[in-house]
Structures are given as structure tokens and as C-alpha cells.
Amino acid sequence: MLGELPIFPCNIAKVPIIARGFKSARRGTNPNGWPLVGFATGAASGIDVLDIDTGVGWYSANFDALPQTRAHQTQRGLHLLFRHAVGLRCSTSRIAPGVDVRADGGYAIWWPREGLPIEDWPLCEWPDWLLEEARGVGIKRLTGATDTRVVSQHVVKAAIAFASWGLSLYAPDIFSA
């Protein structure tokens, strides 16, 4: 699979060591001698990555809802690989703290080259619920927030509970005279 991807060299800190970084990624390049191999995510490769850090409770809480797709162990957690969803861009902690998306405009390290374990399932599509969260649609819909970066996990959980009871977190008429 690595031979089919647009790749480029990275240093051990996971930073590209070529001009233009992931924008210089090329298919069919020989990575021998590179400290780490990066690959362009999103439309460039057809692969999006859900990057989950170790110790993040989100993974355990959502494990049963996640599809079986290719997975790579990383130095700090897990990469779940999905087929690219058109229009999906990179985000940091939009889904939950420690859960990032690498898609259009980003890259990831190809950890199997470093000998880390993989689950070699075929790439699957993003589940609808997760794609909504990756795009920030789910949080915005449930809380009315315009900046999803400032919405805490507790607010999201409360919004879900309130919505299931037919209520809203926002009740401006309560405080009006």
C-alpha cells in the first residue's frame, strides 16, 4: 500500500524535511534512508486518518460504533484509516480532546514502516455520525455553537441528553422580564 501513496521524508519529530512538505509528496518514491515516511492525506491519497491519542476515553466509549477499517498503532496511540470524504479537512480535537482528523491539507506518518502493529482491514467509508462530528456538524446542531473548538465534551453530552428529552441548553426567555 505504501508504494501507491504520495510520500515524503519526515524527521523523527514527524516534521517534513523537504521544501513544501506534504505538498511535495510523490508516488513511487523510494523511502530508504528516510527517518520517517509521511504521506499526504485527503484527496491526494484517497485516505483520511482519525488520529486518536492513548488514554483518550473517546475511543473506549465509541469502540462498538466504529467500523472495522485499517488501523495503525502509532507512537502515541492509534490511526484509523478511512476512504477520503470529499470536502473533509484537517481538524484538531473537534471530535474530542486528543482525537484529530488528517484529511485535505494534511499528512500522517506511515507507522507500519517502523514495525508498529496494524489491523489490515480494507479501508471503509466514514460512518455518518463520525463524519458529522469530524465536520463539526453534530456539535453545532446540538449546541448551537459557532466555534466548535470551545465546546467541551461535557456540554456536548449535556446537549445530547437535553435534545433526547426535547429540551435545549439555550433558554433565553427564562431570563427575560
Describe it for me?
The chain is of the alpha+beta class and 177 residues long. It has two domains: 2-126, no CATH class; 136-168, no CATH class. Helix content is 19%, strand content 23%. The protein has helices spanning 57-62, 128-135, 137-143, 153-164, and strands spanning 7-10, 36-40, 47-53, 71-73, 77-83, 91-96, 99-102, 107-109, 118-119. The strands form two sheets. A six-stranded antiparallel beta sheet has the order 6-7-3-5-4-9, covered by helices on one side. The chain has a three-stranded antiparallel beta sheet with strand order 1-2-8, with no helix packed on it.
How would you summarize what this structure contains?
The chain is an alpha+beta fold. The protein has 4 helices and 9 strands; from the N terminus they run βββαββββββααα. The radius of gyration is 19 Å and the shape is globular.
**How would you spell out the order of helices and strands?**
EEEHEEEEEEHHH
Assign an overall shape: globular
Low-confidence stretches: 140-152, 169-177
What percentage of amino acids are in beta strands? 15-25%
Identify the strand order in the major beta sheet. Answer: 6-7-3-5-4-9
Features:
single chain; disordered C terminus; 23% strand; 6-stranded antiparallel beta sheet; alpha+beta; 4 helices
